[in-house]
From TrEMBL:
Belongs to the transketolase family. It catalyses: D-sedoheptulose 7-phosphate + D-glyceraldehyde 3-phosphate = aldehydo-D-ribose 5-phosphate + D-xylulose 5-phosphate. Its EC number is 2.2.1.1. It comes from the Bacteria. This is transketolase. It comes from Mycoplasma miroungigenitalium. Keywords: Calcium, Magnesium, Metal-binding, Thiamine pyrophosphate, Transferase.
Length: 652
C-alpha cells in the first residue's frame, strides 16, 4: 500500500474515533470523501501554515458542511489541528464544530452547513479574485491567480441557490472555479435517484462547465486535478465514491451518519489494515508524510512574497492601494455630496450616492437582481469589462451568498439590491452573512404599501420584521437625503455586521431639521418640535416613509387642539431600543409615545417600558390600487393617527 493510501486509511480511522467520541457526526462523507480531501489538501491546495489568511491562497469551501470530519482529519495530519482538537469535535468553543465555522478555526474559508451556500460563496470568491487581478495584476506580476475549490454532495445540487450560482458561474466563465462532487448516490432519506434523476454531466455541459467523471482513487483524483489546471472556464468533477466506505453501512441510507460500537470499530480498522485499533492512536509515519508537503507549499508562499516586494518597488501607488485594502484602512467620506433637488425618493438619493462612490472610490462591487432601473443600485461599467457592476440576474439568494464570498476573501464593499418584498428569497444567505459577521450591504427599495398598484405581492409587510430579527443584522430606514447619506456613511465605515438599507420608491419630504442628533446618536433624529396651548404632550416616533405622515399628523394635532408634539425619525430602531441613555437624554420617555411604521415589527413595543405607548403597524396584506388608497385603507392616514393620539392622551 502506497503512502497516500495509508494516509487515507489513517484519516478514516481517525474519523471513526472522532465521531464515536462525540457520540454523533456524519461518518458517511468523512469516510467516503477521504481520498478527495487527502489528495486535494496535500498535493494541490496552495496554502501555507505560515499565514492562514494569505490573500492569494487557494480557497476551499466544504459546501456539504456536515462532512466536516473529512477535512478535520487531513488538517490534523498536516499539523493544523491537534489531537485534542479532534477529541473536542462538537464541543463548545472547539476548533472542530459540527459544521465548519470561520470564527472557530482560521483555516476555514467559509462557514457552511446550509446546503448549496458554499457553491454560491465560491462563485463570489472567484469573482473577488478576478476583480483584484484586474485591478492589481500586471503582465509580469500575477499577484492574484489562485483557485477556488468547492466540495459538495448530491444534496447541494438539489438546492435552488446552487443552480442560481452555477448558471452565473457558467455565464461569466470563471476560471479556476472547481466544483468537486462527492457522488455517492445516497442522501438521508433515500437513494438520490428517487428524488433527482438529472443527467448531471449533460446539465453541467449545458451550463458551460468543463465536465469530468472519475472513480474515486488517489491516483485518479491527482491526475484530474493536474489536468484541470491547464484549462479555462469553470469545472465540474463528478467523483464516484462510496458513502460510509468500509463499514457495514457502506452504500446505504444508514451510512449518512452515526457512530459504531467498539467491536465494529475494531473490525473496520482491521479492514483498513491499520496498525492500531485503540482510539486516537495511529502510525506516526502518516503524520510525517502529510507534514512533508509543507516544504513546497511554503516555498510557493515565499516566492509570492518576493513577487510582492518587487511589485511594491515597481508599482508603488498600486501597492499603497492594495495595502490599504488588505488592512481595511479605506475610509469613505460623504460630506461632499451635493444634492441638486429636495423632496425626492430615497432610492433616487441612493443613485446619486452610488454615483459619488463610483467617482471617488474603487474598492466596491455589486449590483441588483435585475432591478437596477427600479432600485437604482448599479454601476456604469460591468464586472466582465473590468468594472464594478455585477449583473446577478434574477437570483436574489445567490446574489446575497456571492457577496458573502466576496466579503470572506477581500475587504471590498459589496452591494446587493432587490425589492424589499423579495428579500425573503435571500433569507438563508442573509442568515449566514450575519453568522459570519460579514459587513455586506443590502439595499431594499419599494419599502411599503406606498408602492401602490404593483399589488400585495410587492408590498412588504413582514420583511423589515424578519430582517431586524436576524442577529447581527442592522436595518437602516432613512426618511430623506440627510438620513440616507448618514446610512451609507454608517454602512461603509463599519466592518462588524451586515447592513440592510430600506429605501422608498415614492418621493418623500426633505426635512431641514438638524442632522447632528443623528450623527451623534447613530439612531434617532429630532424632526420637529411643535409647541401649543394645551397641557398635553406627545412624542411621535416613525421611520422612513412614515416620518412624513407623522409630521403631518403632528401639525394637525397642534393646530387644531394645541397639543405639544415632538416628532422623531428613528432610522435605526434596533440601536435606539438598546440605548436607554439616549432615550432619557432626548426625553423621549418623558411623555406618551405614538409610534408609526408600515411593518408588523413588534420591536416598537419595547418603548412601553418607559411610558404609555401605542403603535400603528401594518397588520394586513395590501391591495392593487393607487398608493394613497392602499396606504390610507390600512390606517396610515392623518385621521387615524390623530384618533389614536387622542385615545392615547385620553382626550375625548
Amino acid at each position: 500500500m502506497n503512502k497516500d493510501k495509508l494516509l487515507v486509511s489513517a484519516m478514516q480511522g481517525l474519523a471513526l474515533d472522532t465521531i464515536n467520541k462525540a457520540k454523533g457526526g456524519h461518518s458517511g462523507m468523512a469516510l467516503g470523501a477521504a481520498e478527495i480531501t487527502e489528495t486535494l489538501f496535500t498535493k494541490h491546495l496552495n496554502i501555507t501554515n505560515l499565514n492562514p489568511k494569505w490573500v492569494n491562497r487557494d480557497k476551499f469551501l466544504l459546501s456539504a458542511g456536515h462532512g466536516s470530519v473529512s477535512i478535520y482529519t487531513i488538517m490534523h495530519y498536516m499539523g493544523l489541528l491537534t489531537l485534542d482538537d479532534m477529541k473536542n469535535y462538537r464541543n463548545l468553543n472547539s476548533k472542530t464544530p459540527a459544521h465548519p465555522e470561520t470564527d472557530a478555526f482560521e483555516y476555514v474559508d467559509a462557514s457552511t452547513g446550509s446546503l448549496g451556500q458554499g457553491i454560491a460563496m465560491g462563485v463570489g470568491m472567484a469573482i473577488a479574485r478576478d476583480f483584484l487581478a484586474n485591478k492589481f495584476n500586471k503582465p509580469d506580476f500575477k499577484l492574484f491567480d489562485h483557485s477556488v475549490y468547492v466540495l459538495h454532495g448530491d444534496g447541494c445540487l438539489q438546492e435552488g441557490i446552487a443552480h442560481e450560482a452555477i448558471q452565473l458561474a457558467g455565464t461569466l466563465q470563471l476560471d479556476k472555479f472547481v466544483l468537486i462532487h462527492d457522488f455517492n448516490k445516497i442522501q438521508l432519506d433515500s437513494e438520490v435517484k428517487m428524488v433527482n434523476n438529472t443527467d448531471l454531466m449533460k446539465y453541467f455541459e449545458a451550463m458551460n462547465f468543463n465536465v469530468f467523471r472519475i472513480d474515486s482513487s488517489t491516483e485518479n483524483i491527482d491526475k484530474i486535478f493536474n489536468e484541470i489546471k491547464q484549462i479555462n472556464g469553470p469545472t465540474y468533477i463528478q467523483i464516484h465514491t462510496k458513502i460510509a466506505q468500509h463499514t457495514p453501512n457502506e452504500g446505504t441510507v444508514k451510512g449518512h451518519s452515526g457512530v459504531f460500537d467498539e467491536q465494529t470499530t475494531i473490525e473496520i480498522k482491521n479492514k483498513l489494515k491499520l496498525d492500531f485499533t485503540e482510539p486516537f492512536k495511529y502510525d506516526i509515519s502518516n503524520y510525517e508524510y502529510a507534514q512533508s508537503f509543507w516544504k513546497n507549499k511554503n516555498l510557493r508562499y515565499g516566492n509570492w512574497n518576493k513577487l510582492v516586494e518587487n511589485y511594491n518597488t515597481k508599482y508603488p501607488e498600486l501597492s499603497i492601494e492594495l495595502d490599504k485594502l488588505l488592512k481595511n484602512k479605506i475610509q469613505y467620506d460623504f460630506s461632499k455630496i451635493n444634492y441638486t433637488k429636495a423632496n425626492l425618493s430615497t432610492r433616487e438619493y441612493t443613485k446619486q450616492i452610488l454615483n459619488f462612490i463610483e467617482q471617488n472610490y474603487w474598492s466596491y462591487i455589486g449590483g441588483s437582481a435585475d432591478l437596477t432601473s427600479s432600485t437604482n443600485v448599479g454601476f456604469q461599467k460591468d464586472f466582465t469589462l473590468g468594472g464594478h457592476n455585477l449583473r446577478y440576474g434574477i437570483r436574489e439568494h445567490a446574489m446575497t451568498a456571492i457577496n458573502n464570498g466576496i466579503n470572506l476573501t477581500t475587504n471590498l464593499k459589496t452591494f446587493a439590491s432587490t425589492f424589499l418584498a423579495f428579500s425573503d428569497y435571500a433569507k438563508g444567505a442573509l442568515r449566514m452573512a450575519s453568522l459570519m459577521k460579514l459587513p455586506a450591504i443590502n439595499i431594499y427599495s419599494h419599502d411599503s404599501y406606498a408602492i401602490g398598484s404593483d399589488g400585495p405581492s410587492h408590498q412588504p409587510i413582514e420583511q423589515i420584521t424578519m430582517l431586524r430579527a436576524i442577529p447581527n443584522m442592522k436595518v437602516l430606514r432613512p426618511c430623506d437625503e440627510n438620513e440616507i447619506t448618514w446610512a451609507f456613511n454608517y454602512a461603509m465605515n463599519q466592518n462588524d455586521h451586515q447592513i440592510s438599507i430600506i429605501t422608498s420608491r415614492q418621493n418623500l419630504e426633505s426635512f431641514s431639521s438638524d442632522i447632528n442628533t443623528l450623527n451623534t446618536t447613530n439612531c434617532v433624529r429630532l424632526i420637529n418640535t411643535l409647541k401649543g396651548r394645551s397641557t398635553h404632550f406627545l412624542t411621535l416616533l416613525a421611520s422612513g416613509s412614515e416620518v412624513m405622515l407623522a409630521n403631518k399628523a403632528a401639525k394637525k394635532l397642534n393646530s387644531d387642539l394645541g397639543i405639544n408634539v415632538r416628532i422623531f425619525s428613528v432610522p435605526f430602531l434596533q440601536e435606539l431600543t438598546e440605548k436607554r441613555e439616549i432615550i432619557q437624554k432626548l426625553s423621549i420617555d418623558k411623555y406618551p409615545i405614538l409610534a408609526i411604521e408600515a411593518s408588523n415589527d413588534c420591536t416598537w413595543y419595547k418603548f412601553a417600558q418607559y411610558t404609555e405607548l401605542d403603535v400603528v403597524l401594518a397588520s394586513n396584506f395590501g391591495a392593487s390600487a393607487d398608493a394613497k388608497t392602499v396606504y390610507e385603507m390600512n390606517g396610515f392616514n392623518i385621521q387615524n393617527i390623530v384618533s389614536r393620539a387622542l385615545k392615547l392622551l385620553k382626550i375625548s
